Amino acid sequence: MNEFSFVFLAALLLSVVVKLWLAQRQMQHVAANRERVPAAFADRISLEDHRKAADYTLANVRLGRVETVYGALLLVGWTLGGWLQWLDDAVRATGWDSIPTGVAVMLAAFLVMTLLDLPVSLYHTFVIEERFGFNRTTALTFVGDLLKQALLIVLLGGPLAWAALWLMERSGDYWWVWLWLLWSAFSLLMMWAYPTFIAPLFNRFQPLDDESLRQRIQALLEKCGFHSQGIYVMDGSRRSGHGNAYFTGLGRNKRIVFFDTLLKSLDGDEIEAVLAHELGHFKRRHVQKRILTTLLMSLAGLALLGWLADQPWFYRGLGVSSPSNHMALLLFMLVIPVFTFFVQPLMSWFSRRHEFEADAFAARQASADDLVRALVKLYKENASTLTPDPLYSAFYDSHPPASVRIAHLSRQLQGQAT
Predict the structure, then answer these.
(1) Given Cys at both, which of 56, 90, 114, 210 links 383, Cβ 3.0 to 4.6 Å?
(2) What CA–CA distance (Å, rounded) separates 340 from 338?
(3) Which residues of 142-155 are buried (b: 16+ CB within 10 A; e: fewer)?
(4) Predicted local distance difference test score (pLDDT) of residue 181
């Protein structure tokens, strides 16, 4: 251990303490408001549904606390506990060259990490989701998804890791610039390819067959100047009772996707309003802004890694005695979330700002009242708490709290009336 070891441990401990403190605030706030539906929702959400949302939130936060501590212990094990060094020594014993050794170490680490995350995932799916009536996933589907994810890690992660390590070894002092270009290209390619080649591995997508609804949606798309490869319905009910809708893809390979559960719970006006909200993200260029932000942050991160990779204290401070390119990548990916956790409220603020802008767009293109009704139904169907702790929400939530969002839309509705 060295000075950086203590810096890392201090940052990790602080992040764990903050997460547990925020979780405690959330639990206390939700529990304190469990027996009273907020006034803005009193005529739309029953006390029974409000209690269910509170209990569902509490169950997830309790699991989140366990996951926080468990994840921190695993991180210490991988670093200062010597697990990464042991894995590296085991693969090096094969006598392979540096790049295949690095690829093997990275893939093995990711696969083992996936297995170690299984207890939390299993409990969430088959205990919490099952208890509240949301789970539709069978054991066979769960195992199948896990195997597909592992296969994707090998088929996509393997070549990417090989190319990254080759660049780090062969492209000179500014390898991190070339690696950033590679990562940016790969990320954009995955965004483009996801709806056509990856998502269908996990779900079925059928063209929307409701002709009346399809025509309404198409008219709204044309009005907003949005072009896509089609409007699809996803069999979300195969795995969960939660409903959602989203845009996916990039460029001309964009798709609009509705969960089948969403179409069953919303009427045509409400679906149009939800779609108008999503189109608001498109018209306000939120997707492009988020992509640009992500790319710039990754460039800054790789520049930092370019410096850290040459510092012996970086490896020693994290329990690695054999510095290498693949260890630099693994350590950085493992440790950087500990430090970036503290900027999360800023990212959440930007995201919530985008949501307000998309809501305002939807209120102009469709109807604020229809969007309010749709959101209330989604809060109810998804058992989303209406009373989150304000600080917890500011730290974590990418969407504004329900009461704040509905109040914002109500002002839009008053503006429409006048």
Answers:
(1) 56
(2) 6
(3) beeeeeeebeebee
(4) 97
| Rounded Cα distance, 233 and 256, in Å | 8
SS3 232: strand
In sequence order, the β-bridge partners of residue 207 are: 232
Which residues are within 8 A (CB) of 106 and not within 5 positions of it... i.e. 6 or more apart? 157, 161, 326, 329, 330
Per-residue pLDDT of 97-122, as tens digits, reads 999 999 999 999 999 999 999 999 99
Reference 164, options 332, 336, 322, 293; nearest CA is 332
Which residues are the active-site residues?
278, 359
Tens-place pLDDT, residues 136-171: 999 999 999 999 999 999 999 999 999 999 999 999
Which token pair is 184?
Answer: 């940016």
> 3-state class of 18 per DSSP?
helix
Q: Is 108 exposed, middle or buried (0-12, 13-18, 19+ CB in 10 A)?
A: middle
3 state SS of 340: helix
Alpha carbons 324 and 193: distance in angstroms, whole number: 32
Residues 6 or more apart whose Cβ sits within 8 Å of residue 93 = none
**At 250, phi and psi to the nearest 5?**
-145, 145
Q: How many residues does the chain have?
A: 418
> Would you say 400 and 408 are in contact if contact means Cβ atoms under 8 Å apart?
yes
Terminal Cα-to-Cα distance of the chain (whole angstroms): 67
- The low-confidence residues of the chain, meaning pLDDT below 70, are 413-418
Residues 363 and 350: their CA atoms lie apart, in Å, by: 20
Per the rule left: phi > 0, alpha: psi between -120 and 50, beta: everything else, 319 is left
Secondary structure (DSSP) of 74-123: HHHHHTTT-HHHHHHHHHHTT---HHHHHHHHHHHHHHHHHHHTHHHHHH
